[in-house]
UniProtKB/TrEMBL annotation:
It comes from Candidatus Phosphoribacter hodrii. Gene3D superfamilies: 3.30.300.30, N-terminal domain of ligase-like. SUPFAM superfamilies: Acetyl-CoA synthetase-like. GO terms for molecular function: medium-chain fatty acid-CoA ligase activity. Residues 391-467 form the AMP-binding enzyme C-terminal domain. This is Acyl-CoA synthetase. It comes from the Bacteria. One of its GO terms (biological process) is fatty acid metabolic process. Belongs to the ATP-dependent AMP-binding enzyme family. The lineage of its organism: Bacteria, Bacillati, Actinomycetota, Actinomycetes, Micrococcales. Pfam families: AMP-binding, AMP-binding_C.
């Protein structure tokens, strides 16, 4: 018999464990009842891949869990996606929107709960192959529109079990975070993690320092956050001190600045466990709860994963803590390819089957990894979100007042990198052009991909080949 992906949720001894999302709390038993009814409704409609508007709500959790129980693939649509990106995700994935769209065009509110109410208790959950798809997560590349990353149930299970091992994460833990429910961090680790391991979950809504402090007061033991959130926690010492009662603080999705690591150590008494991953690979390297914790260090490969750092010719560089190269990974947590893009999938792997992360790293003699940056300036990490410069440039070039543009990530104390659009206007730039361009990106892509700043210039720096020299802009 296949082991269920959400084995904690299905464990009768955990029926009283609690899942809280913003203001709604359900026991595992109640969540299972609601999600089973959703699963039955999906099975009745013979759905195989559904898209969900992934707002940070219990409705989203019930729908995702229902789909996982039914063996239906989930395509989360970013809650802040504009109509353009939303349409791309729906068209490209071919997913059915769940819950079905109301006649007025809006998704029916509370539909997941209504499906729950109408569910029949007699429905038997199907046994689903580990090779079946769990998610198609849309993520940015350096150019073009976001690609759908196909993650199997096997990869999700392997990734979560590896983290349970690394962090001694058990059913006694209550995980708290306020991450978006449409990416690996908040959804795969942050929702499926507890439901596989059997622990509690407290999604705090907006990830403010005071909300994290309140979760700690309410008994949360583990905290997930991106560096921007941790940096804001450090800036509010009273909230930070509340986290002293935690068992483990974890940071990921972007590099944690050393002063933030040190600030948290001082205020919370905890050295944060930093870990590294990607949508395509899940979490491949992590600081272990029982291992060395060092600022700027993301730890060691998780169970089952192998890593190597290679030079431009693909030859491994020495593991001496200083030699740099591209980090490549392989193991059971890797994705099954980009949806409908076999060439992009092939290009992402080496001939001998290693995934090219595009991140520059070094491995020390003790096996600990340090991520030094990205090989390409065209992938920006802002607030922990991965954003392609190319997708923003395409949108901006669609505006008649833009002759040329280059989008760059500029170092930012709060966001890690802030998106800046450098624009050569087609004529004299009217005052409102900057706002118009930002709004265009919000409508075509999403709120978190908007440039925080638009700089107008007479010309872009180019090399003799005519290529824009972005490094001269930052
Ligand atoms: C601003 N807003 C606008 C707007 N400008 N709305 C519409 N149009 C405009 N032009 C509004 C927003 O709607 C929102 O409003 C508010 O401004 C948000 O401001 P912000 O500054 O953009 O966001 P903030 O709340 O400060 O977000 C910071 C953050 C966020 C850290 C909370 O960046 C975040 O959640 N990051 C997590 C990213 C993540 O999970 N990455 C994981 C990827 S997986 P309103 O109404 O809402 O207040 C991965 C793998 C791994 O990387 O390793 O984990
Ligand atoms: P995403 O696909 O959104 O998950 O983004 C993956 C990218 O986030 C990686 O390729 C890294 O560039 C970055 N990243 C994730 N975790 C870390 C970390 N701990 N330190 C530095 N960069 C990270």
């Amino acid at each position: 018999m296949t082991e269920p992906l959400l084995r904690g949720l299905l464990d009768p001894t955990r029926a009283d464990a609690l899942v809280q999302v913003a203001d709604t709390t359900l026991s595992y038993a109640a969540l299972l009842t609601s999600a089973t009814a959703v699963a039955e409704a999906m099975a009745r409609e013979s759905l195989s891949r559904i898209a969900i508007d992934a707002t940070p709500t219990m409705d989203t959790v019930i729908s995702v869990v229902g789909a996982i129980l039914a063996g239906v693939e989930v395509v989360p649509i970013p809650a802040d996606a504009g109509p353009g990106e939303r349409a791309h995700i729906l068209n490209d994935s071919g997913a059915d929107l769940w819950p079905a769209t109301a006649p007025n065009g809006g998704a029916t509110e509370g539909a997941a709960e209504r499906a729950a109410e109408s569910g029949r208790a007699a429905y038997r959950l199907p046994e689903v192959s580990p090779d079946a798809g769990a998610f198609v997560l849309y993520t940015s590349g350096t150019t073009g529109l976001p690609k759908g990353v196909r993650l199997s149930r096997r990869a999700v299970a392997a990734g979560l079990d590896a983290l349970a091992d690394a962090w001694a994460w058990t059913a006694d833990d209550v995980l708290a975070h306020g991450l978006p429910l449409f990416h690996v961090h908040g959804l795969v680790l942050g929702v499926l993690g507890p439901l596989r391991i059997g622990g509690g979950l407290r999604h705090v809504g907006r990830p403010t320092p005071s909300a994290y402090a309140a979760a700690a007061h309410a008994g949360a033991t583990m905290f997930f956050a991106v560096p921007t959130i941790w940096s804001r926690v450090v800036a509010e010492p009273e909230s930070a001190r509340a986290l002293r009662s935690a068992r483990l603080l974890v940071s990921g999705s972007a590099a944690l600045p050393v002063p933030v690591f040190e600030g948290l150590r001082e205020l919370t008494g905890h050295e944060v466990c930093e870990r590294y991953g990607m949508t395509e690979t899940l979490i491949t390297v992590a600081t272990r709860a029982d291992g060395v914790r060092r600022a700027g260090c993301v730890g060691v490969p998780v169970a089952g994963v192998k890593t190597r750092v290679v030079d431009d010719d693909g030859a491994p560089v020495p593991a001496d803590g200083t030699s740099l190269g591209e980090l490549q990974v392989c193991g059971p947590t890797l994705f099954d390819g980009y949806l409908g893009l076999p060439e992009a999938t092939a290009a992402a792997f080496t001939a001998d089957g290693w995934f090219r992360t595009g991140d520059v790293a070094t491995i020390a003699a003790d096996g600990t990894h340090r991520i030094v940056g990205r090989a390409s300036v065209d992938l920006i990490k802002s607030g922990g979100y991965r954003i392609g410069a190319g997708e923003i440039e395409s949108v901006l070039l669609g505006h008649p007042a833009v002759a040329e543009c280059a989008v760059i990530g500029v170092p930012d104390d709060d966001l890690g990198q802030r998106i800046v659009a450098v624009v050569v206007p087609a004529g004299p730039a009217p005052d409102e052009l900057a706002t118009e361009l930002i709004d265009l990106v919000v409508a075509q892509l999403s709120v978190h991909k908007r440039p925080r700043e638009v700089r107008f210039v007479a010309a872009l720096p180019r090399n003799e080949m005519g290529k824009v020299q972005k490094t001269r802009l930052t």
